[in-house]
Amino acid sequence: MRSLFWRLFLINGLVFTAGTLVLAFAPVTVSATVNPAEIPVLVIGLAIILATNALLVRAGLRRLDAEYLASGALAVAAQEGERQRIARELHDEIGQSLTVALLSLRRVADQAPELREETEIAQQAVRASLEDVRQVARRLRPGVLADLGLRSALRELVDEFSRTSGIDVVRSMPKDLPALGREVELVVYRVAQEALTNVARHSRATSARISVSVEGRRLTLLVADNGHGGDYPEGVGIRGMRERASLVGADISVTANAGGGTDVRLVIPDAVRGA
Ligand SMILES: Nc1ncnc2c1ncn2[C@@H]1O[C@H](COP(=O)(O)OP(=O)(O)OP(=O)(O)O)[C@@H](O)[C@H]1O
Ligand SMILES: [Mg+2]
Description:
The protein has a 5-stranded mixed beta sheet, covered by helices on one side. Helix content is 64%, strand content 13%. Helix 1 runs antiparallel to helix 2 (39-111) and helix 5 packs parallel to helix 6. The chain contains 7 helices and 5 strands, in the order H-H-H-H-H-E-H-E-E-H-E-E. It folds into 2 domains: 4-75; 142-275, Heat Shock Protein 90. The mean pLDDT is 87. By secondary structure, the chain is an alpha+beta fold. The structure holds adenosine-5'-triphosphate (ATP) and magnesium ion (MG).
């Protein structure tokens, strides 16, 4: 991608060159002391130069915008690829060796009944780690997103969240979500995931609400809780949501709501394809 500086320099250079050529060859003259009759000519000339410049710069920046969004999509894809690789390694390698450890502990318990109590404790610890690893792997790789689409993936996320946190969540999502890009789905899913994690970790809420709404091409995700709110010093979580949002040209806000809890609102203006 050519740098912004050179692009603007080129556009301005072209406009100035064109202006100079017109001055050189057009049948207009400007006296050393400008006479009043020449002022309209100067003003019109200047207006043409400024308008041409504005049009070209805008076209140039629009292309830059498109390139930025495209590279954002690439970044989301790369990040997701990396997460899937880590998820696979966690699941296949660490999960595998923990399973082997579990099996050998069982054999020890069988062969040395006098150690049963100790091996039982060790087995429990290994089983807990195995469950942790599986859970981390599952969180890293939203396989359901690819398999079942955003609606079901969110439903599953919310169900698991309610089960583990004990916080009630009211869901509201349109029955038929329109076609969304892969990156858009990922961003919505990841933002919902982090927002819910924050509800569980920080809000002391008893209930929460998640809603997805679509209006024209715009999609809005809202995760609201009835907890005690906060002043939201930006940690890795909120910063990550912000970065992900900016990759698809979206806006995110984390604010106190009327009930004293927290609203996380993600607005993606250009979410729906071809609407
Ligand atoms: N739903 C919420 N209710 C109350 N406070 C919240 C809520 N969400 C975020 N916060 C506040 O905002 C802070 C920043 O959140 P952020 O997700 O960026 O970081 P974190 O959750 O502390 O750590 P991590 O980087 O692991 O996500 C939190 O530490 C908390 O103080
Ligand atoms: Mg967090």
